[in-house]
Design goal:
The complex is a heterodimer. By secondary structure, chain A is α/β, with parallel strands linked by helices. Chain A has 2 domains: 202 residues, Periplasmic binding protein-like II (D-Maltodextrin-Binding Protein, domain 2, 3-Layer(aba) Sandwich), CATH 3.40.190.10; 209 residues, D-Maltodextrin-Binding Protein, domain 2 (3-Layer(aba) Sandwich). In chain A, the strands form 4 sheets. In chain A, strands 2-1-3-12-6 form a 5-stranded mixed β-sheet. In chain A, strands 10-7-11 form a 3-stranded antiparallel β-sheet. Chain A has a 3-stranded mixed β-sheet with strand order 8-9-13. In chain A, β8 and β9 form a beta hairpin. Chain A contains 16 helices and 13 strands. The longest helix of chain A has 24 residues. Chain B contains 14 helices and 2 strands; from the N terminus they run αααββααααααααααα. Chain B is mainly alpha-helical. Chain B has a single domain, classed as Orthogonal Bundle (MetI-like fold), CATH 1.10.3720.10. The chains are: A alpha/beta, B mainly alpha.
């Protein structure tokens, strides 16, 4: 009898372990029957991949998802109106990383563990500089003492894309430094027929985002130590000036005469039409270049991490999206939104997401067999950059600082003012913003103009 | 007693009957304006899931002084309004006078002319952005084909505002034409015949007879276009977003950035009031000028 009991117990343990192991290896989560949800999502280059993955969710689970697909320009206002009203029409809202702080601080979102205390991000899920966590006491996005408020459906960093055929023919190796890029430009630049390398230079988010790669590379910062509450403005440091001078040199010596007006669409277009030999492009745009309907350079584009200056730091500025659950929806809807989130972040869903042309957000997808296939040849560069990628402007005043930098950097690029004058002006204006919002701030002495 | 109340009500009915209209006016016009005024002297912050208003009467006005983009925005808007409206009204008048002389096909010309007004501004912005594109746009392709160098239409600080103004002119000349053409058609034929019999040339008839008779229509066109030009947003947002530098920054675009991108609601309200003030001041000045000229 004892033996039978022991055997039964052993069988039960083995069965349980097998079941748990099978559960652990399940590529998709079983989230059960859930009410229909509505998601506010942007029509960015990765959208079609998201849409296909949502369709897979509907097929697998029978749960319905309605997508409110909105151009970037309308996303912020739709999200604001939704969470500020009595009842949000959306169960999940997708927020650009710069906007999250306004929503976290405003108390408009539901911490995910309040919906289900057992919910956590799988360890393989990339947290993109902890942009989904909010530490209210520190007013900072960090997992240390912070609540999980959101997860990322997309994590953009810039990749440096180059025409493998052109660089090889000209005798250049893939660039590792901006000096390599300048050297190749000297040979490949033939305007207006072709350009050596193109970078976004248009006023606003475009130039601010791209320049920060140069800023990080030169070891410069916008403020001294925002996480610790020291908002002393350091944007007019000699390192920042060197970064801006290098940026202007690359943009002007390698790009078209309208470098100061180049936006994301222009840069993609120049590379896809074969007019540019190299470009700094967000990872989400990759699918444009291997699509014969959109590109004349199919199979010719390769990706490396964005170059650093000689002797400088490897740069990677994060520009991710964050999916969050509004506070003003019914509990059942919150649970359904979380169920979708749980499913979406599984290994199986992320593989399907990558295969549909999007940028997956799990590290194991990048380490899978996909990374070694030509279609996904951008993956190693992306994963490499995630090792040192960081968030910039992660404070409530970020949008105002971006406006200031976006203008002053552009004015320096188009020659309206010198780099030193532009950075001094930006420094003064940013300090004023922090002073008015009651931060501990200060400034460096002005650069000689 | 009752009869006297009914009689009083009947007598005052003409006043009471206005009540629905007054209520609608208060709801749709007065309330938003009062709210805007209230917002302009407040700071709105969001915490604990709701808006928190605090009364800060001087803070937002003080921001005007430290706004380094505003002077450029006001200057660009002034240039935009003066150049665009002057060109639109002049071209609209010329077209109206020319088409007015046609014996046949006036209806067809009018129908064709109306097309640019029917195109949504978003489509206009996208269409012209493609045409202005430095590398792939039709203007530069034509110039290169003719052996000329490509022009940096939207990327040059000296050309960008003019490029935006050209789009606005293309969009709104038909509006000026339609109003002025209706006025031209309304000029009594016998007046023109009388001038012709008196030996006036075509130029003299246009200058001495038709244009004076068109003054009220010209004033209306100028005022309408002036108001709309001050509020131009979509075209410049799509074409340049205010760049390069501040060369195409208009007040309405700056207002959008302050309100919606920087989320400074109080300061955005101050800028809104400033824009309303500029429009009203311009309207009053131009009305006075028109009245003075008419009297002269």
């Amino acid at each position: 009898m004892k033996q039978t009991l022991r055997a039964a117990a052993a069988f039960a343990v083995v069965a349980l372990l097998t079941a748990l192991s099978a559960q652990a290896q399940q590529p998709f989560a079983d989230v059960g029957k859930q009410p229909a949800i509505t998601i506010l999502v942007n029509s960015s280059p990765w959208y079609s991949g998201f849409e296909k993955t949502v369709e897979l969710y509907e097929q697998q689970t029978g749960n319905k998802v309605k997508l409110d697909t909105t151009p970037y320009g309308g996303m912020l206002e739709k999200a604001r109106n939704a969470v500020r009203g009595d009842k949000s029409p959306y169960d999940l809202v997708n927020l650009d990383t710069q906007w999250t702080i306004e929503f976290y601080e405003g108390g408009f979102l539901t911490p995910l563990k309040e919906i289900d205390p057992t919910f956590d991000l799988p360890k393989e899920v990339l947290t993109y500089g902890d942009s989904g966590y909010w530490n209210a006491a520190k007013r900072w996005r960090t997992a240390s003492g912070g609540k999980l408020m959101a997860w990322s459906p997309n994590g953009n960093v810039d990749l440096f894309l180059y025409r493998a055929d052109l660089l090889k023919a000209a005798g250049f190796a893939p660039p590792k430094t901006w000096e390599d890029v300048l050297a190749s430009c000297a040979k490949l630049q033939d305007p207006p027929r072709s350009y050596g390398a193109v970078i976004r230079g248009e006023r606003g988010n475009g130039i601010r985002f791209e320049w920060m790669y140069f800023m990080q590379g030169k070891g410069a910062t916008v403020v001294k130590d925002a996480e610790s509450g020291d908002y002393t403005v350091t944007i007019n440091s000699p390192q920042a000036k060197a970064a801006l001078d290098l940026f202007i040199e690359v943009a002007k010596r390698c790009g078209p005469p309208n470098a100061g007006a180049l936006g994301q669409g222009d840069v993609i277009q120049l590379l896809a039409t074969g007019k540019a030999a190299q470009a700094m492009v967000v990872s989400a745009a990759w699918s444009n270049f291997d699509d014969p309907a959109k590109s004349v350079v199919v199979g010719k584009i390769m990706a490396v991490p964005v170059p650093a200056p000689v002797g400088g730091k490897a740069p990677a500025v994060l520009g991710n999206w964050n999916m969050a659950v509004p506070k003003n929806i019914a509990d059942a809807q919150k649970k359904a939104a979380l169920a979708f989130s749980r499913w979406f972040l599984t290994a199986g869903a992320q593989r399907a997401y990558a295969e549909a042309g999007a940028i997956p957000v799990r590290s194991d997808t990048y380490q899978s067999d996909l990374a070694s296939t030509p279609k996904y040849r951008w993956m190693p560069a992306y994963l490499e950059m995630q090792k040192y990628a960081s968030q910039e402007l992660g404070y409530a005043e970020g949008a105002q600082v971006e406006q200031i930098l976006g203008l002053r950097l552009n004015q320096a690029l188009i020659g309206e003012m010198s780099s030193a004058k532009a950075l001094n002006a930006a420094g003064r204006e940013i300090e004023e913003v922090f002073r008015k919002s009651g931060r501990r701030t200060g400034a460096l002495s002005a650069l000689p103009e | 007693m009752l009869a006297s109340i009914v009689a009083a009500l009947n007598r005052s009915f003409r006043h009471w009957s206005l009540l629905p209209a007054v209520l609608l006016f208060v709801l749709l016009t007065v309330y938003p304006m009062v709210n805007l005024l209230r917002l302009s002297v407040s700071t709105v912050e969001f915490a604990e899931g709701r808006a928190q208003w605090s009364f800060t009467p001087t803070r937002n006005v003080a921001l005007l002084a430290s706004d380094s983009v505003l002077p450029a925005a006001v200057l660009n808007t002034s240039i935009f309004v003066v150049v665009a409206v002057a060109a639109e009204v002049t071209l609209g008048l010329l077209l109206a006078l020319l088409v007015g002389r046609l014996d046949r096909g006036k209806g067809l010309v009018r129908t064709v002319m109306i097309l640019p007004i029917l195109v949504p501004p978003v489509a206009i912005g996208s269409m012209w952005k493609l045409m202005y594109n430095y590398d792939f746009g039709m203007f530069n392709q034509a110039m290169v084909a003719l052996g000329m160098s490509p022009v940096n239409w939207l990327g040059s600080t000296s050309l960008a505002l003019l490029s935006v103004i050209l789009v606005d002119i293309w969009h709104w000349v038909p509006f000026a034409f339609l109003i002025l053409f209706a006025a031209v058609e309304g000029i009594p034929v016998d007046v023109i015949e009388a001038a012709r019999i008196d030996g006036a040339s075509s130029w003299q008839i246009a200058r001495r007879v038709m244009i004076p008779l068109l003054k009220p229509a010209l004033a209306i066109t100028l005022i309408f276009r002036g108001i709309l030009a001050f509020k131009t947003f979509d075209e410049v947002y799509l074409l340049t977003s205010g760049g390069p530098g501040t060369s195409t920054e208009l007040v309405s675009l700056h207002l959008y950035k302050v309100f919606f991108e920087q989320n400074l609601l109080g300061y955005g309200a101050v800028l809104s009031l400033l824009l309303i003030g500029i429009i009203v001041a311009t309207l009053l000045t131009s009305r006075r000028a028109v009245t003075a000229r008419s009297n002269a």
